[in-house]
Design a protein that fits this description.
The chain is of the alpha/beta class. It is built from nine helices and nine strands. The structure holds 2'-deoxycytidine-5'-monophosphate. The site of 2'-deoxycytidine-5'-monophosphate has 15 residues, from helix 2, helix 4 and helix 8.
């Protein structure tokens, strides 16, 4: 079974999908981490050697860069592991700068093609998957058994992200966070290739006034009865 969950930054996707996948015993596929890893590798990895991606790079050049970055994506105990050479990437993928860099490189068709290939390959290794990102239901797994678009109002999303960063000792004022999230949403939803949008047949779920456990419960209910959902139109729960 494939559950594909898309939506903007701060909608609660990662938190909820991690718990949902764990409870269902499914693979948790965080596709955003893969875009973050490419952004990181282009800057940091041997072979990436600090080359900046120009505004409109030649896609062959991007493919060459991807071929040179020693990124490996694998599954361990139902979780995605990302290596650059022999370095396991984790916290270095989480800062605000890497979020913006990931959004920038995610508009490049060569990067998308490279990662979508990996995402489908990884999904084939797990019997069942909860995938989350921006295009998992529209492009990566259009035949997913359950498609959901999670969202929340901008203020709530910014407050959640600020609190997350706060816990890591990174202070970003709420207004600044709101601005950054808004800019990223815009870039992610207006790009030419695989823009962020609800998939045909996706269930729309606004998490602004919901607790994490409520969202997980609703998704779990949907996962247990995906055939009961209306697959012809977007639907508010
Ligand atoms: O979900 P996230 O914040 O970790 O994603 C970081 C960026 O990666 C996001 O701003 C756009 C890009 N991304 C994408 O284009 N497609 C995906 N399926 C996942 C993420």
């Amino acid at each position: 079974m494939i559950i594909a969950i898309d939506g903007p930054a701060g909608a609660g996707k990662s938190t909820v999908c991690k718990i949902l996948a764990h409870r269902l015993g499914f693979v948790y596929l965080d596709t955003g981490a893969m875009y973050r890893a490419v952004a990181w590798a282009f800057k940091e990895c041997p072979g990436g050697d600090g080359r900046q991606i120009e505004a409109d790079p030649d896609q062959n050049q991007v493919m060459e860069m991807l071929a040179q970055t020693p990124l490996i994506f694998s599954l361990k105990q139902n979780r995605l592991e990302i290596y650059c050479g022999d370095r396991l990437l984790s916290e270095e993928l989480r800062g605000p700068q890497i979020s913006e860099a990931a959004s920038r490189i995610s508009r490049l068709p060569a990067v998308r093609q490279f990662l979508v290939g990996w995402q489908r390959k990884l999904a084939e290794q797990g019997t069942s998957v909860v995938a989350e990102g921006r295009d998992t239901a529209t492009v990566v797994f259009p035949e997913a058994d359950l498609k959901v678009y999670l969202t929340a109002d901008l203020r709530t999303r910014a407050a959640r992200r600020s609190a997350e960063y706060d816990e890591k000792g990174v202070k970003v004022p709420l207004g600044e966070m709101q601005k950054r999230i808004q800019q990223r949403d815009e870039a992610d939803s207006k790009r030419d290739h695989s823009p962020m949008r609800p998939a045909e047949g996706a269930i729309l779920l606004d998490t602004s006034h919901l607790e994490i456990e409520d969202v997980v419960d609703r998704l779990r209910g949907l996962a247990q009865n995906p055939a009961g959902t209306d697959s012809t139109a977007h639907k508010e729960l």
